[in-house]
Amino acid sequence: MQPILFLIRKEFIQVFRDKPMLFIIFVMPILQLLLLGSAVSTDIKNITTVICDLDRTPSSRELMRRFQHSKYFDLEYIESDRKNITRYLDQGKATIAIVIPTKFEKDLLRHQIPTVQILVDGQDSNSSLIAMGYANRIVQSFSLEKLQYNLIKNPGVIRQIHLVEPETRIWYNPNLEAKNYMIPGIIVILLTVITSLLTALGLVREKEIGTLEQLMVTPLKSYQLMIGKTVPFAILGMFEISFAIGIAKLWYQIPIRGNLSIFFGFAFIFMFTTLGVGIFISTISKTQQQALFLTWFFLVFSILMSGFMFPIDNMPQIMQYLTYINPVRYFLTIVRELFLKGSGLSYLWHQVLIMTIFSFMVITFSAIRFQKRVS
Amino acid sequence: MNTRFSAIFRKEFRHIVRDPRSLMIVILMPILMIFIYGHAIKFDIKNITLGINDQNKTSASRELIEKFERSGYFIISAHPKNSDEVEQLFQKRKIKAAITIPYDFSETIKNEFRSKVQVLIDGSDSNTATVIMNYISIIMAHLSEEINYQFIRSPISVEPRVWYNPDLESVNFIIPGLVAIILMMICALMTSITIAREKETGTLEQILVSPIRSFEIIFGKVLPYVLIAFIDGALIVLAAKILFGIPIAGSLIQLTILSIIYLYASLSIGVFISTRVKTQQVAMMGALLATILPSLILSGFIFPIRSMPLLLRIISNIVPAKYYLDIIRGIILKGIGFTYLWHNTLFLFILGTILLLISVARFKTKLD
Question: How far is A361 from chain B (nearest CA, A)?
């Protein structure tokens, strides 16, 4: 026990002595959290728009005003020549172009159904669809008002109209804020990155510099070495996520409806997996560069396929099957459900079980391998 | 100068070749990433699990249910009887939304102006929830239109057209972005490590005793990585074309030249970082922090810059990936050329040159 404690102390001393490292361990994740948290917004706003009004009547100007007043659109350009419209899209000056045809007002009055064109820059398919939806909605509500105006003139007609409308209520995230979904994910990623990367690098560094040999001449047993080098990072990881949760709650006001102590329990189990991966990578790398790349490899794929940014349900079946062996996927689900829905063990036991099995397997495998290597 | 420079160059190359593992990862990983990214990322949301509580059970309500079934977006997978059951289903993640058709639906639909249908949506994934909300509104609007066909015909018709990516393929959007990220990653990461490693293992001192000048060291060490990054970039674009058939609308030559300028800027960042740090770990983390993170988040790769708060929008103006993203998407998807992209190119070139000059000037050729 004593040697392990010594090792832990040594590791902590080394960490705190390395000022740039300190910065990276403590400041960078927080920066990441703040950055990602603020940048992440799948809400589309301020879409630069160019409108070509070929009619220039009160009705067309009214429609233009709707776009001007909409918080979604930034009406920056008004173009009079239809031919120039595409240039705005080409140059990236505008994302969406609206063309109001000539005789717009005349056709409206005579019930001749004028056609409004909406041209959208399709590069970002997600935003394009949403932008188009918003633009469509503006035109449609303008259209509906005209319709209602016509209807009011014929009150008898209204009695014969029956509309079906949804009365929608959103649970768990009533304002549909993306950050409530993303920030728990970011916390998971922070934990994953810190524990796996620092463990792998820490172990390989000693190998590369040559101090590992010195450690091996001591009466230290290999398991003591392993524990001594991973426990500090486990502690750091726990500290990090506590800090991150603090920021999430205080700065971003993310709801935490579940039991936090259970959360830390789950995080503890999860950490065994990432620490195990770190150890494993250290046994197959000779240099820190290799360790970095290999850990990077692991991180990129496990984060990609975890459901963090791209919902797993949208992926093709094969990919979905692959995610079943990704431990991050389970922890991510646990964290999100715990935070937003207040789910407890009763709903999450499945995830927890699999995570525990994974952790056990990975750490055992890695430990054995490490033992063999160092002996 | 020629022989000294080429000596460093060849030495660096030997180092690289002698570490096949890193090389393999550098070349293999991007291709794998493209493969997985390209297939895994779909922004279109389908197969939405839906729960329906039909309290009316008439032909009218069945007509509404059928509309959901036939939409192609929903899968009706549960029939919750009350909101408690809905809560349970949400918690078990079995459904994402639940619809309750009121018991008097068939009456209200004949006599009232508005018939309300209750919709409950699991809002934890806000993006999906928004889309679900829109789908449901559209389906009910369609039903309304059908019921009242003679009276409600929209006075205005809308003709939407999508440019550059008519099938709204997510791949076309992601792949160019991926190329930018990967190139940045390789350049910044590898170059930042290279000089730091020599410092850490002590071999830099040995080089410094020789009559080599700082810019020779820096350029000699950096050039092999330029080549590797370039080959990698070409491989990625090739893979994208083969695996996903992404058409390149613009000029390949322009793409090549402008990409090299981007590589130049990325490398200079890596070099700059490595000349300021003492250990590899810090170099790596620094490279991560200064290059990969902003490139991923602030370049417009996934998250639209325009939707970000002002401070972040300002910071994004110094992220090289942002400029390159415009370039590569412009050339591949829009088919535009240098005439529209010159200011992006200029920025990258100036950034690269400034950083390199600073690095060379500050690189201490004395022992610490």
Answer: 25
For an interface test with B, which of A164, A173, A179, A347 has the most B Cβ atoms less than 10 Å from its Cβ? Answer: A164
Say whether A161 and B155 touch across the interface (CB within 8 A).
no
- Nearest Cα neighbor of A123 from B322, B321, B173, B331 is B173
Quick one: B131 and B252 in the same domain? no
The residues of chain A scoring below 50 in pLDDT are none
Are A192 and A241 in contact by the 8 Å Cβ rule? The answer is no
A309: chain B residues, CB-CB within 8 Å: 302
**Two tokens at A276?**
């195990």
Q: Are A182 and A261 in contact (CB under 8 A)?
A: no
- Interchain CB distance below 8 Å, A290 and B22: yes
B127 in the same domain as B33: no
Instruction: Number of A to B CB contacts under 8 A, please give it.
Output: 340
Same domain, B197 and B139: no
Residue B150's pLDDT band, with cuts at 50, 70 and 90, is low
The domains of chain A, with CATH numbers, are 2-40+175-374 (no CATH), 47-145 (3.40.1710.10)
Q: Are residues B118 and B188 in the same domain?
A: no
Sheet holding A163-171, edge to edge: A163-171, B114-122, B97-101, B48-54, B74-78
Q: Answer whether residue B368 shows pLDDT above 60.
A: no
CA distance A184 to A48: 31
Exposure string for A117-134, b = 16+ CB within 10 A, e = fewer = bbbbbbbbbbbbbbbbbb
Q: What is the CATH number of the domain that holds B131?
A: 3.40.1710.10
The CA distance from B76 to B69, in Å, is 7
Question: Mind listing the pLDDT tens digit for each residue in B294-306?
Answer: 788 888 887 778 7
Q: Is the pLDDT of residue B168 over 70?
A: no
CA angle B317, B320, B325 (to 5 degrees): 95
Q: Which of B88, B163, B225, B313 best tests the A interface by mutation, with the highest count of A CBs <10 A? A: B163
Q: Which domain holds residue B111?
A: 48-147
> Strand A47-53 relative to strand B74-78: parallel, antiparallel, unpaired?
unpaired
| Interatomic CA distance for residues B216 and B222, integer angstroms | 10
Task: Flag whether B6 is in a domain.
Answer: no
B245 belongs to a structural domain: yes
Name which of A119, A87, A47, A96 is nearest B339 in CA terms: A87
Q: Does a structural domain hold residue B201?
A: yes
The total of structural domains in chain B comes to 2
Confidence check: pLDDT of B171 > 60:
yes
List Cβ neighbours of A368 (8 Å cut-off, separation of 6 or more): none
Please name the member of A161, A285, A333 whose beta carbon is closest to the beta carbon of B113: A161
In single-letter form, the type of residue at position B17 comes to V
In angstroms, the CA B365 to CA B209 distance is: 9
Question: Is residue B223 domain-shared with residue B143, that is, in the same domain?
Answer: no
Torsion B74-B75-B80-B85 (CA) sign: negative
> Does residue B258 lie in a domain region?
yes
B195 and B68 in a common domain: no
CB A131 within 8 A of CB A49: no
ipTM of predicted complex: 0.78
The reply to whether B19 and B74 lie within a common domain is no
**Residues β-bridged to residue A171:** B122
